[in-house]
Specification:
The protein is mainly alpha-helical. The chain is about 55% helix and about 10% strand. It is built from six helices and three strands. It has helices at about 1-10, 15-25, 30, 35-40, 55-60, 60-75, and strands at about 15, 45, 50-55. Strands 1-3-2 form a three-stranded antiparallel beta sheet. A hairpin with a 3-residue loop joins strand 2 and strand 3. Helix 4 packs antiparallel against helix 6 (about 60-75). The longest helix has 13 residues, at about 60-75.
Amino acid sequence: MKDYFLMGLRLKEGISIRDFHQIFGAPPEVFAPASLGESLKKGMLERTEKHLRLTEKGMDLLNSLLVDLFGNLDETPSPEQLCWPLP
């Protein structure tokens, strides 16, 4: 999941919310509500109907955004607790 965020947020279109949900079983906000919520509030991320992507401000602060995001992901309950759809 960290790799998905790391690589996806570097793309202009960002992360496809539909694809993320299909892969991980829930939208991104379920796995990192604090850091994603804060980044959205600070104007570093924007969420459209289809994508979660960086704003211009977020591009400049991507490394600090990822540090916060990864810390929040590490606090997420284990996949078993989330009923992760493992293959």
